[in-house]
Amino acid sequence: MVPLLGLNTEELRTVAATSGVQAFRGNQLAEWLYQRNARDFDRMSNLPPAFLESLQKHFIIGRSKIIITQRSTDGTVKLLLELSDGARIETVGLPYSSHYSCCVSTQAGCPVGCGFCATGQSGFKRNLTAGEIIDQVLSIGEILKETGNHGRGRVDHVTFMGMGEPLLNYDATVKTLKLLNNELGLSARNLTVSTIGQVPGIRRLSQEKLPVTLAISLHAPTDDLRHQLIPGFVRWTVAEIISAGRDYVSQTGRRLTIEYCLLNDVNDHAGEAQQLADLLQGLNCHVNLIPFNPAEGLPYTASPPQHVQAFSNLLAKRGIQVTERARRGADIDAACGQLKQRNC
Ligand code: SF4
Q1: From ligand 1's centre to the CA of 122, what distance in Å?
Q2: Which of 86, 87, 142, 230 has the greatest number of CB atoms lying within 10 Å of its CB?
Q3: CA distance 45 to 227
Q4: For ligand 1, atom 4, which residue shows the shortest CA distance?
Q5: Which of 10, 53, 90, 272 is labelled catalytic?
Q6: Domain holding 33: CATH number?
Q7: pLDDT in tens, 69-119
Q8: Is the domain of 44 the same as that of 69?
């Protein structure tokens, strides 16, 4: 059975036409899938019975099962979702004063294996399909509607920062970006793809004519330190990654985000702040300092506030735009991969 979720309106029009009904029925189907969050065919009351019968014979909708819902006192919602083959992934909803963001996973597990990440320690199962990625946004959207939380009750920003490396699942990532843009009506500017520094993927994405924000998870200003933190991902040097980031900025006109997770006494000294500032001189970027979320079995601790402040001040003094990301969902299994680890 083929999942419908993940097909765009054009493809759904083809499904309709090949099922012997007028192509516009495909537009109605797209509305049920992406605007009205249909989880079963019975709700699709405006579709002809013969078309519904044919759909039920050959297709499934392709929604995941929500296994666990965790709600933080700060409004963060984390879901553990089960896919059709039993693989489990996480997705997170994050309310902000101006918008509501969903952080999606692009792979079940992750092949990169960062030493400070719970997902990286739990191995890699498989790539997700575009349908399985957009399903996460729809699932968080359902929770928003149920709770009447946040303004319009819909997700308006999506970050590809959950489990997995999006650019190692390039085709499904780009297809999802287009679905979010065209089917859910989200502005490309409100979509962020975060990569550990997969240089060929960055270069390919810059040619897509999709002005999405690119975030590079750098975490270290030198090759030696990066190899220590991300031992399985030594293919591209820091210089090559930043060069690809510079080209992305010039191709798309978008400001680059540099993600830097601060680990106590590992990458948070004044020396690393200076090296980072040297590296980023003249680049249209801002540095997002991320607080480390400790998880069982990981050999790192979070930088204390005085280290964070000193690191941030030093970058700012060197003319680098810098923000400190607030820790969210600290009272639920906030670190990426933690909720899955506990429940698989
Ligand atoms: S931080 Fe991202 S790239 Fe690294 S192991 Fe975790 S999920 Fe993979």
Answers
A1: 10
A2: 230
A3: 56
A4: 114
A5: 90
A6: 1.10.150.530
A7: 999 888 899 999 999 999 999 999 998 888 899 999 999 999 998 999 888
A8: no
